[in-house]
Amino acid sequence: MAIIGIDLGTTNSLAAVWRRGRSELIPNAAGEFLTPSVVSVDDDGTILVGRAAADRLVSHPDRTAAGFKRDLGTDQRRRLGSLSFSPEELASFVLRSLRQDAEQFLGEPVEEAVLSVPAYFAEDQRAAAKRAAALAGLRVDRLINEPSAAAVAGADGKESLSLVFDFGGGTLDVSLVERFENVISVTAVSGDNRLGGRDFDEAIARAFCRETGLVYGNLSPRQRGILLRQAESCKIALSFREPVLMAVNDGEMAASLLLTGEWVIRKCGNLFRRMAAPVRKVFLDAGIAPAELDSLVLVGGSSQMPVVRGYIAGILGLEPARIPRPDTAVALGLGYCAGMKGGAADLRELVLTDVCPFTLGIDVLNRGEPGRPLMSPIIERNSVLPASKEAFYRTSHDNQDRVEIRIYQGEHRYCGDNLYLGKLSLDVAPAPRGEQSVRVRFTYDINGLLEVEAIGGNGQHSRLILRKGGMEETEALRRLEELKNLKLHPRNQETNRAVTARGERLYAMTVGDLRNRVGQTLDWFQHQLSSQEPLRIARARRQTDRFFDQVEAYLGDTAFPYAATEEPPEGEEDL
């Protein structure tokens, strides 16, 4: 049974597998490698995932969710129509879709995966990622930090020190990675879980509104969807040319503005400053200087923005290495990791070490402010995993007969500002303050298993094991059955549904004669679908897609070759 690697992204997700001696990307039902991390609920309650859902962000914003990876580990819920979902439940639909694509591609069941997460994800976020996999029917024993996976994909056996700058749609990860022979070792990590390409889209959209007289806060969800889509398109277009015309016109909202790379830099200054902070931190933690770097590796789709590449290259004084597909580097690395997990003979000598992204410790008495316990670190951030460390503590009160040890994760001085993970208790013999000691040992492995042991001077022993996962098995099984009852759109019909959703989005973005043309083409395509003749539908889909390509080119400020009064395609003879 195959093990796959899954890169669950904020904007797009994709999967890979190790076979025939190499990491191989897995195509989805539409033959594409990138599946948008978007979920939508159709009018009949069917769950849509991927491209078909992404195009409904404009036409059906109240029934569509995106960017939910950022909410993993929180209690936030999204209401889509009459249904309500947690972030991990939405993520599970994307993972289930990728799993089904993999089973179709490989011709065998897939029940296990290696899953990537941002290096700077805390324990609650990692636990939520594993819950999402469980709800998708996937067993995940190993979580891989995204920059670590990218480093594996680029491993060439040469000794080097690289900075991996992983800038995706919703998160930023920065890692220092050392390579020597068959060992790939992550030295230090930092990042920002709330910074990504989506933030540039919103910053561009808000600045566009300010300069054209629109009020962003007064726009409807549909209008915001149109504006953000245009901002994203212009951001991508600026990677190839400038200036770029950003224009919106839905009949109620009409405005246009020429954008340049310099304009983006001015309007997104705060985002660039946030981008630099984790870069500085990772060098401080590792105790090395940027001049010691051998290479700068930029991965993630948002890292390919020229303004981002230029900014990072400027502050480090190093030109980025050229890699073929920055947006697939993490997935390709996960293919390697899946092969390693499955015991592939040609990967047995490859060794990947990782680090603990956050400090782990316990609470101790704060005599200055007794109500605000202090954090006592035991395993500090960037400790190489697996790690096992211990510390000694003494009783704080006379005749104390019991010690409660609360476990936290984070970098703040006060425990209340860090993430609480759990607690254990230990009986001690009553004695004057400070005469009884307790030894606390933390053991943390590469799979996210934290074992906490407390041993008292009288031989008393207490142990707590914390696993990434969090959801009780009975609760996980119950919710898995509930989600199974929701009908996912059939994979073999996904392409047709995506064409329809694309047309609905374009209809919402256009006005006048062009909107009528889009509507007529949609009606014609639906008529072809009703024939239930595969060849006729395939031809209709190809012709409809060609027309929609032309509409999108027109909206992207490219010459539109069709006259607005031309009739839509009709009948099989025109196919």
The span between the termini is 43 Å
Q: Residue ranges: pLDDT <50 for 5 or more in a row?
A: 468-473, 557-575
Structural class category: alpha+beta
State which percent range the strand residues make up.
Answer: 25-35%
Radius of gyration, in Å, reads: 26 Å
Number of helices: 15
- Average pLDDT confidence is 86
Shape: globular
Largest sheet features: 6 strands, mixed
* Count of individual beta strands: 27
Helix content: 25-40%
Walk me through what this model shows.
- The protein is α+β, with helices and mostly antiparallel strands.
- 35% of the residues lie in helices and 27% in strands.
- The protein has 15 helices and 27 strands.
- Strands 1, 2, 3, 4, 10 and 11 form a six-stranded mixed sheet that branches. A six-stranded mixed sheet has the order 17-12-13-14-18-21.
- Strand 12 and strand 13 form a beta hairpin.
Task: Please write out the topology.
Elements: E1 2-7, E2 12-19, E3 22-26, E4 35-36, E5 38-41, E6 47-49, H1 51-54, H2 56-59, E7 64-66, E8 78-80, E9 83-85, H3 87-106, E10 110-117, H4 123-135, E11 143-145, H5 146-153, E12 160-167, E13 172-180, E14 183-192, H6 197-212, H7 221-237, E15 244-249, E16 254-259, H8 261-267, H9 269-286, E17 295-299, H10 306-316, H11 329-341, E18 351-355, E19 360-364, E20 374-379, E21 384-385, E22 387-394, E23 402-409, E24 419-427, E25 437-444, E26 450-456, E27 461-466, H12 473-484, H13 494-509, H14 512-529, H15 534-555
Parallel strand pairs: 1-10, 10-11, 12-17, 14-18
Antiparallel strand pairs: 1-2, 2-3, 2-4, 5-6, 5-7, 8-9, 12-13, 13-14, 15-16, 18-21, 19-20, 19-23, 22-25, 23-24, 25-26, 26-27
Helix pairs in contact: 3-4, 5-11, 6-7, 13-14, 13-15, 14-15
